[in-house]
Protein 1
Amino acid sequence: MGVIFFLVLFSIAVALIFLGAFFWAVKSGQFDDQYTPSIRILFDEKISSKQNKTQTTNRDS
Amino acid sequence: MSNVNAIELCCSHCGEPVLEFEQHTEELLFCCEGCKTVYHLLHDNDLCAYYNLDEKPGNTISGGIERKRFDYLIDQDVQNKLIDFTHASTASTSFFIPNIHCTSCVWLLENLNKLDDGILQGTVNFLKRQLTLLFDTDKTDLRSIVELLTSIGYEPDLKLEQLSERKKSTVQRNLWLKLGIAGFCFGNIMLFSFPEYLNLSTSSSENTFRIFFGALNIILALPVLLYSSSDYLKSAWAAVSQKGINLDVPISIGIVALFGRSLYEILSGTGAGYFDSFTGFIFFLLIGKLVQKKTFDRLSFDRDYRSYLPISALKLVNGLEESVTVEKLAIGDRIVLRNNELIPADSILESDMAMIDYSFITGESEPVSVKKGDQVFAGGKVCGMQAQMLVTKKVKHSYLVRLWEDNPSGLKDSKITGFADQISPYFTFAVLVIALASCIIWLQIEPAKAFNIFTAVLIVACPCALALSTPFTLGSATNILSLNGLFVKSTEVIEILSKTDTTVFDKTGTITDARNASITYHGSSLNKEELSLIKSAAQTSVHPFSKRIYNYLGNVGSLKPDSVEEITGKGIHALMDNTSLFMGNKQFVEQQTSLTINTKTSTSSQVHIAVNGSYKGYFEFENELRNGLSTLLNKLQRNYRIYLLSGDNEKDGERLHNLFGGWENMRFRQSPYQKQEFINALKTKGNHVLMLGDGLNDAGALQASSFGIAITDDTSSFSPACDAILDGEHLQDLDRHIGFSISSMNIIKASFVLSLIYNLTGLGFAITGYLSPLVAAILMPLSSVSVMVFTSVLTRIKAKQMGFKIWV
């Protein structure tokens, strides 16, 4: 049954890593703004200028 | 021209209607030179994705920016206050930018580095309308950044208030950390307690396991007690040491009883303790607290006078204009103010004439004309030509600031004693009596068990559900009210709103819609050329009436008159070909044309028109009442007393006295002080006064009232200190807002009954001595969760019944 002590302590250690990750997330400000990231996900890395030129003209016609 | 307007051509940048054809390039149309410039700037820097993310996202660029305005940003003192931190050549700063409104805004502001090499990183917080920038001080400086932002239509809102203190709240982060710890320990302790619940331990290894898990549980429970629950213990201690009892007192008794009893059981080896219930209890309480903390970051409810003042002024030094922060203005300085700029300090006018718009301070709707040598007061807005002034008082001592500081917030019910806090003393007393009584009874029956029963009662009577019902109900109510136009300062104030029995309205800007004044023309009809000339003459003037006439003649084409001359505060004389136009007040037109104007004396404002020496007629202005006002007042009258307080004259009294139920309910020509006194008088009579106002002239009254609502048409613009901000479009819903706050309070009372039932059930177990850790572990989360669900669902059902929007 000695293995149970090891397993319990090990599981706590793993859980502590996640708690640490949560701490880091809070401290780095990830919980400060829960809205803007939902906007940011819409941005493409790079929209080529050629493509967007046609789009702009299309919209205005 | 009118045909063109019918097709509705919109500016490719900002979506404003395009009136003239001059500003187009390629196949794009622009409403003004400013928008065109921004488009080209973005186009040249490959930033056109801006236009693809959202429809016509730009902000109108009304005029070119004046380089001088931001000169004060070079000042080292100002920089130090604006910059959050500097490390080597990297600096960080953040701006509040009210114009942030869509996806494109976020994208552009986070890609500013393409426009300015010195900007390293930009991060937008959309809800706070805040832009945080990291920049290289070697390559760029604060002034260039602010100028860049202004030039693309995102002018930061730099206010004095911001300069004097910039605090970052870490409260919210701490709450998250506390919640994380409590959740972590709750989960783990519950797992370790499972063998105990199910009686799984075998006799041989029972003792070692008990010691091992007991030790682990104690170690895990300690941070919850010392860190997560510290707010409750501190608050309870503060209350007790001031000989008061709030809701945190019974909660803390429960916390201490739970922890002490569990510690004792484990150390003495008599049981497994209630650590799972303890940590779960704290976990749920903190969730409640997080819900309650929801605030509207982009709205400011506690603005002081500094928010109203500009940050800098143009000072004349040896005939040269120099930009200084208003704090540095000294008595005897000469300042120059342009059209639409606020006067920062009480001064004496040095220009010959000026028009000052005091609507902000007094509520009077028309600008007053001031002559050379007259006193002008801080907070007034210069209309028309630029004016030179001699500062006579420091900003700190000016009329505007005194207005503010003579309204000590002590007049306000400083501490909100909520319903839950009111019943806490009785609750605590009852719990202690029951615990002692059952302890004494058990001493007779079985003395060994008496201590256990005593602590069990304290544990089970802990008002967990009670403590959760208020934050969850009011949290949902806050959300629902905000979806329906009323933004409250904090969840607690909803309770005050529900007690309202008297409502007081301000007039200008509150019940009248400043942007929507009705204009009617009386007199002989004007031909097309005359109308065009009137429009063109009005276009050159900045007087509010001219602007309204200009908008009123929207479809008429404009001309380029040969000469336009404006006599500030009196009228305009325009010449075109052989047509000569005089428009202005009665006196002006009579003097200039030697005509006699016979109009019936009216209480409304009029602008008279004379063309080529003959009198044509006049434009009449009437402030339009907001939509649905009469219905609202009718409904309010059934349940509440209503009053009108106005800084303006009686001219609107005729049409309002029916709505307000007679002249005795209306007060005109009220100074800000008189308004405040009126409210205080009502309050002394024991009334709960709801005050609705909009300008600084109502600030005192709003602060004095039990519940102050600032009404605004643009929630990102500034409003005086208040308990709630109401979107102008939702004024007609005010009676329902109050009704909903009353329902919310009833829901809280109903959930109190529910939680009392849980407490009584628990007490049954406790008194009879059957409160095992398992019973506690089931009962506690069950009561907490059911109260959370009960209150949130019921609040939404009620809102739906009342016809409110309940989802975004």
Note: The interface with chain B takes residues 1, 4-5, 8, 12, 15, 19, 22-23, 26-27, 29, 31-33, 35-36, 39-40, 42-44, 47, 49, 52-53, 55-57, 60-61 of chain A (CB under 8 Å).
Protein 2
Amino acid sequence: MSAVDTAEPAGGTATAPVVTARITPLSTVQHGALLTWRSLLKIKRNPEEVLGLTFMPLMFVALFVFVFGEAMMGDWRAYRDLITPGIIAQSVIFATIGTGVALNTDIEKGIFDRFRSLPIARSAPLIGAILGDLVRYLLTVIMVMLVAVVIGYRPEGGVPGLLAATAVVMVFAFALCWLSAFMGMLLRTPMAVNIFGSVWMFPLTFGSSAFVPTDQMPGFMQTFAEVNPVTHVINAMRELLAAEPAGESLLWVAIWTAMITAVFFPLATRAYRRRA
Amino acid sequence: MTDAIRAEGLVKRFKGQTALGGVDLTARTGAVLGVLGPNGSGKTTTVRILATLLQPDSGHAVVGGYDVVREPHQVRRQIGLTGQYAAVDEDLTGTQNLVLIARLLGFSRSAAKVRAGELMDRFALAFAADRPVKTYSGGMRRRLDLAASLVGRPSLLYLDEPTTGLDPHSRNELWDVVRTLVDDGVTVLLTTQYLEEADQLADDIAVLDRGEVISRGTPDELKARAGSQVLQVRPLESARLEQVGRIVEDVTGSEVRSGEGAANASVTDTTVMPEVVRRLDDEGIAVAELALRRPSLDEVFLALTGHTAENVPDSGGAAGAAETERTHA
């Protein structure tokens, strides 16, 4: 049954609540947590959405490894080890589009109007949506990782490497979801958010070190790929998974994450205040 | 007793277009204020400002004793909002939707569950309490949406076109709910483009047209403004409608509107009736229907705005559209 029904048995009639006279940081956290619970319920209600999100990456793992593996590296196992972090990063990055789409849908359906007419923290619906999405991203990481392990992926870095790599991609996704949220506020329809979101996720993910070493690309693409933050995320993950020093890659990830957040967090929250 | 809503000179522009051009509204505590107007007249914008979702460009509004711009949180503590579209989460069950709102309003877990249960019962949704809302019918969604706006027992309820798109049965049900709420002392601001709805529910009506209140009063006062009675004459042969129109205009001295095969004219003096009959007889016109009736609010609206509620002219085309509504004899 639903999470609601786990509440303690009810007694008497509902008493009128004490709505705080003003918004405190504590109430913001409480409201944010409640709306995160809503996002998680939605994931539970729509398990096919998470499955749908992970289906593509699963196909990518299987097809890329077994179709291109031998041709690319002469050994599909070596290619599997190369692209697993890339596919994890790619699937999480694509999953961030869902954040903007979901926000846009909530606005369009008037659900945010309802929340905003309640005496709750203005940022709570946004916090709830994004925290819930982080859980969705994490599920995606776990699914892809499981498939990789099933076909024999055993990274040197073991569990600590795996956790560290997951942390890196999650931090980056957290930064990107503000960009997605911004687009979700800016564009008119969920469909538009989806299209605009996808359009430039493709060059970002394929124009990176995800599937081929960047030194095999022609000059201009190589330059693009080496600046591309996704390349740094994937390199950091690879290094952590291989138990190699990842300092430089991590530094770049930190810089990019900070820059993306610095630009899009204020833009997204401002657009949210205006539109939602 | 103070007024529940007092709005003065609300102005709102969107990208250079004036949505509200100085709207004044007053809702008496415990009464139903109907805001009547066609699509695009500024009803929703008005509600959004009064519900703290939008800030007016100028003017101010006091809701439940608090300023909507300066003290939005205090305003939100008193209001419930039901929008044009059922703003409920389709993925959640009906109960979960209500529990979420109750929890956000500070109910404890158990109290939230009890309150949700009460409302699901009251709105005849208990049978579908644990089903996701996406399996609900349109009428059920609206009821849940209304239930959601009542979770915190608001003293002020905004209903923004609550029955748009509902079948007559669901609409009547919703009207009954509104009446019950008013009996409980809730002040209701109802926007509608259905004249009958305002007539049925509202104590006071403000007629909104192109962002301005063009008339206000009780339903009866508004009707009185359009003439006390309407004379309706339907000739047996529709070809003679024009001739009938001329006779009616001649006798009543008021403007004749023809539609659906009948000529309509406002009359204040009902003694014109025999005269009309005599003239029709003289000219040998057979009549299928000859009636005196109360004006519909549609006719009131036409009299007040120069266009019917359903037929919203684009800006600039106003005169032309109004013209096509009237067939001069």
Note: The first helix of chain B runs from residue 43 to 50.
